[in-house]
Design brief:
Length: about 525
């Protein structure tokens, strides 16, 4: 089945319509719609009055003939109020315990459950299969529900003393909603008289059930490339390292959640009109990995650092390539160069800052010159330079220039004379190399290694030059991820491509070293 790529424009238009007059709530609305496309649920954390229920009520407008169910939980809530009352007729005539679900949660397309943690165990247990398998157990029958989106909300996290971990784990996307921060948006919100509960979505933009079913099959076919899978692996390792340090609340992520996150990334790629997941989609993990708001910054830092350091570089085996090219270079140089030691003179630095002038019979005062001052001198031009005594005090300012006869001499002009003086040196042992021609068999072996490495590096460069540019161009337009994060992906791409080209150049220099002897 061919993956559609025309969906991004209508979905983008739909998101703009859904976000109309929702000040600073665009991201939460976008993520809510993404959860629908992925067949997952979203949990909104925030105080009363910040628009959590509004997001759910607006989301139902995305569906043709969409039915919604909304309920505010309390400790007195009963299953009848959420899943429907028991059918008295069925109970009397057929001795069957079944609920009338049509106008309740099992019969809805969009569900909003507020204050979810106040629900009793009977409601929570029934919700588990609805959230995960989209199945509701009605009497002795398993009913496949047609719920497209489940939005839950609360002004608090699940109490740690309650057995709520199973249902908490079912909420794939977790998003914290707060009050409006920008003053201009705040003023617009309080003075806006538009009906935010009015359906403003054109019929042609709305989803049909058949369309969503078809899209779901196409989402499953979205490719998950190597750079994305590598990113998932590295992040999993980094989370384990974070937990091992014992700082803050541990970030525990089980296998089922990782699988669902991949599905979410696939849905994002599909909605953005792509046939494969990209590194921008990976940033969606920041909404899926935290269990406490205090973990969000840590997770964001791990995501950014991982993608910045490893994104494309792991796919191209950059570190392995660097090692193999260096080993090849070392092998070649070790074979074609014969080292031998020679004695040489080197300027002696006094007190890490001065050279000593061997004056002989002179009539000027001072015997030291600053190292940097000497290095700044030229052969052809005189420069007034400080001369120091044994206590390293300035005792003279003389015109000086470097000596033409040797790199360790200085010409000093004093009165009308110009004399060349040696600077104090010391003998050192230096290594020099003599080149030799390699044996033909050795050179043949090197040629094979060179060709293998060169072809692989060229292939990686070609892939990045030809395959990635369209992906790089699309980074800024992701419907669900902040476009500022595209800088992280682009930086890794540019650095990886640059390092590949440097490796190819280094490889060519090594080959030249043994072929042009």
């Amino acid at each position: 089945m061919q993956v559609e790529i025309e969906v991004s424009k209508p979905i983008g238009t739909l998101l703009k319509r859904l976000g109309t007059d929702l000040y600073e709530r665009e991201e939460s609305m976008h993520l809510a719609l993404l959860s629908v496309l992925a067949g997952e649920s979203i949990f909104l954390l925030g105080p009363p009055g910040v628009g959590k229920s509004l997001i759910a009520r607006r989301l139902k407008f995305a569906f043709k003939d969409g039915l919604s169910f909304e309920y505010l939980m309390s400790k007195f809530s009963t299953p009848d109020e959420v899943f429907g009352p028991v059918s008295i007729k069925k109970l009397k005539e057929e001795d069957k315990y079944e609920r009338l679900t049509d106008r309740y949660l099992p019969g809805a397309n969009i569900v909003f459950l507020d204050e979810i943690w106040k629900a009793g165990p009977a409601i929570q247990n029934a919700l588990l299969t609805v959230l995960n398998e989209k199945i509701y157990r009605n009497g002795d029958k398993d009913i496949k529900v047609n719920i497209r989106g489940i939005i839950t909300a609360s002004n608090e996290l699940p109490p740690s003393n309650a057995n709520l971990a199973p249902i908490w784990d079912r909420f794939l996307i977790r998003y914290e909603v707060g009050n409006i921060k920008q003053f201009g948006n705040f003023l617009d919100m309080i003075t806006n008289t538009n009906d935010v509960y009015k359906d403003n979505i054109p019929e042609e933009l709305k989803f049909s059930n058949a369309q969503l079913d078809e899209w779901s099959e196409q989402i499953d076919q979205i490719e998950v490339p190597a750079e994305v899978l590598n990113t998932f692996q590295v992040i999993k390792v980094k989370l384990a390292e974070h937990n091992a340090r014992g700082v803050g609340v541990p970030i525990i992520v089980h296998d089922r959640r990782w699988k669902k996150i991949v599905r979410l990334c696939r849905a994002s790629a599909f909605a953005n009109g792509r046939k494969k997941v990209d590194l921008m989609d990976c940033f969606l993990m920041k909404h899926c990995l935290w269990t406490h708001p205090s973990q969000k910054d840590v997770i964001s830092d791990i995501l950014i650092q991982t993608i910045a350091d490893h994104g494309y570089s792991m796919t191209t085996n950059l570190n392995t390539l660097k090692r193999e090219v260096q080993e090849f270079n070392n092998d070649v140089l070790g074979e074609i160069r014969i080292a031998h030691s020679v004695s040489a003179e080197e300027l002696m630095v006094i007190e890490e800052e001065y050279f000593e002038i061997i004056r002989g019979n002179t009539n000027f005062t001072g015997r030291y010159i600053n190292v940097q001052d000497f290095r700044d001198l030229s052969v052809n031009e005189e420069t007034v330079t400080n001369v120091y005594d044994d206590a390293k005090n300035i005792v003279n300012r003389l015109k000086c220039q470097k000596g033409a006869s040797a790199s360790n001499t200085i010409i000093i002009h004093h009165n009308s004379d110009a004399n060349e003086y040696k600077l104090k040196t010391k003998l050192i042992e230096k290594k020099e190399y003599i080149s030799k021609q390699p044996h033909q068999l050795v050179q043949k072996f090197w040629d094979e290694r060179y060709n293998e490495l060169s072809q692989y590096i060229s292939l990686q460069i070609e892939k990045m030059d030809t395959d990635a540019p369209q992906e790089i161009k699309e980074l800024d337009g992701n419907l669900f991820v902040d476009e500022d994060l595209s800088k992280v992906v682009r930086k890794n791409y540019d650095e990886t491509l640059s390092q590949l080209k440097e490796l190819k150049l280094s490889l060519e220099k090594t080959q030249y070293a043994y072929t042009e002897l």
